[in-house]
Amino acid sequence: MKLLRYGNTGQEKPGVMDADGNIRDLSGVVSDIDGAVLTDTSLASLQALDLSTLPIVEGTPRIGPCVGNVGKFLCIGLNYSDHAEESGMAIPDHPILFFKANSSIVGPYDTVSMPRGSTHTDWEVELGVVIGTQAKYVSEDDALNYVAGYCIINDVSERHFQTQLSGQWTKGKSCDTFGPIGPWLVTKDEVGDVQNLSMSCDVNGKRMQTGNTNTMIFSVAQIISHLSDLMTLNPGDVISTGTPPGVGMGMKPPTYLKKGDVMELKIEKLGHQRQPVAEDA
C-alpha cells in the first residue's frame, strides 16, 4: 500500500495510490497519515478497504511529505562504507546519530532553498524508515516488526554549516526545506527485503549517486534496535538511514548545488523525488 498526503502546504489531505496510479482520497476514513494511523491495527483496516469506493482525486495536486505530524526526525551518518571513505572519515563503531529539525520537512517535489550565505549545499539520497509501533529495548531480530513502512528522503546538507560553525551536524542539516520526504509511504509488506534496494541521485541529469541498501554498515534492524536502547521510538517517528557515495563534498574538486540546479532521487519500490534549487530571499 502506498500512502501519501496531497494539497497545499499545511493543508494536506490523506490519500492512497490505487493499482492504476490514481490518488484516492482517504479524508473520509482518517484525518491524516501520521502516527495515529500507522499502527499495525490501523494499517490493516486501511488495507482492507475497497479502494474503488473512495473518491478519485482529480488533476495533479501538490504531493506533500508522506508523513504528517512527525514526532522525531532522526538521522544516521556515515552508514555506507564507501561514503565514509569518500568523506575521509573512519567507519564508526556504532551508528552516528543526529537530528534534523521538523521544520526542514517538505514534499518530494517542493523547491529546496539554500539559506543565506550558503556555498556548500549538498545532496544525499537516503532510505527513510517510518515507525509504526512504539519501540523500546527491541532486539535486532524483532526490530522490523516495529516499522510501518519506508520512503525516500533527501538529507540536504550545508557542509560549511555542518562542519565549520562549531557544535553538532544539526546546524547544517536543519535549514528550511532540507528534508524532502516522499512521495509515498510504502508499507513494509510491499517493500520486501529492505536491505536490497537500489538507489540513485542525479543533479541536472547527471548521475551523482548510485548505491544499494545492501552496503549499509548498520542495517535497518540494527539501527532501530540501537536507537530503541537510547530512547523510545513512537509511531510517526522518521529515521533517515544514511547515504551511499557520490555526494558533492566527496568529489574532486568538491561540487555543490547552485540556484537553478535540479535534483532527482530514486529508490527501488519507493518512487521518485525531484527538487529544483533556489536561494532564500
Mean pLDDT: 95
Number of strands: 18
Radius of gyration (CA) equals 18 Å
Task: Strand order, main sheet: write it out.
Answer: 3-2-1-13-10-9-16-4-5
Q: Proportion of β residues?
A: 25-35%
> What is the chain-wise order of helices and strands?
EEEHEHEEEEEEEHHEEHEEHEEE
Largest sheet: 9 strands, mixed
End-to-end Cα distance: 39 Å
Question: What descriptors fit this protein?
Answer:
alpha+beta, nine-stranded mixed sheet, five-stranded mixed sheet, 281 residues, single chain
Structure description:
The chain is an alpha+beta fold. 14% of the residues lie in helices and 29% in strands. It has six helices and 18 strands. The strands form four sheets. Strands 3-2-1-13-10-9-16-4-5 form a nine-stranded mixed beta sheet. The longest helix has 11 residues, at 220-230.
Question: What's a concise summary of this model?
Answer:
With 281 residues, the chain is an alpha+beta fold.
Task: Furnish the topology, listing elements before pairings.
Layout: E1 2-6, E2 13-17, E3 23-25, H1 40-47, E4 73-77, H2 81-86, E5 96-99, E6 105-106, E7 112-114, E8 121-122, E9 125-131, E10 147-154, E11 157-158, H3 159-164, H4 170-173, E12 179-180, E13 185-187, H5 188-191, E14 198-203, E15 206-212, H6 220-230, E16 238-240, E17 262-267, E18 271-279
Parallel strand pairs: 4-16, 6-12, 7-18
Antiparallel strand pairs: 1-2, 1-13, 2-3, 4-5, 8-11, 9-10, 9-16, 10-13, 14-15, 14-17, 17-18
